[in-house]
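Lab channel / #folding
Pinned by the channel admin:
"Please post every new chain as: sequence first, then the structure tokens as a reply. Keep commentary short and put observations after the output so the thread stays searchable."

First post following the new format, from NK:
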Amino acid sequence: MQELNTGKGKILIVERSTNVNSRVSGTIRRCGVDDAAMLHRLSVETYVDTFDGTSSDEDMEKYLEETYAEPVLRKELANPDSVFFVILMPSGAQTKARVGIGRGVGDAGDLLDSANAGKSRNSVKYPDDPANTVNSVNSTDPGKFSETAISAEIPAGYMKLNFGDAQIEDMGPNAMEVQRLYIQKAFKGCGLGTQLMNLALDTARERGLHKVWLGVWEHNEPAKRFYAGKGFVRVGQHDFWQGDDKQTDYLMAQDL
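Reply from TO:
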């Protein structure tokens, strides 16, 4: 990973093989308020891909409306104690990524990336810039991302970090929460989840914090194994409401 200063803010450049014969590069950047529409689409799509069928349609719809509506995301994006990052991949890489899915490419745990950093499911400071706005929606279906996207890059996943009072649990003054971490289905297996998690841990260290924590659904065994492999251990649990459906998330943390 390397960091470039473009004059319009810092951009983190990441690279990862998507299949044995091809190498693609992507970028991780901080999101600004103008990214709310893009984050809305990406959040809804990845959440439904991950948790569809875990509650009634009514509860799912209620949760999505309450959690991922654009005004809600705009407020979160404007909160100085919350930071969103999006990872962007070249539009042509989506087809290549599909080739690699489930074939030993990338980190095995990243096949489960969109099992997120929790169903709390719902750092570095870069200036907001209109040039950061990503328009990568399929022109025929505004609810889906596709390799036919007009822009040169597509949002392949995102992460939300919380500090201070933005955290949904009190883990002490030196803690950071990884509240959301999702990867699009077409890009699972490319190591993008690991790259975002590495950025989260680096961000906590740069801020002088000593604990990173997250929530994960109690029945999501693959995700629990993934986070355990990243050094997280269970430290408790809390209730999570998906609409009117009360569920349980395990709290996992690691000391830095």
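NK: The two ends are 20 Å apart (CA to CA).
TO: also worth noting, Strands lie at 2-5, 10-19, 22-30, 82-90, 153-163, 175-183, 211-217, 233-242, 245-255.
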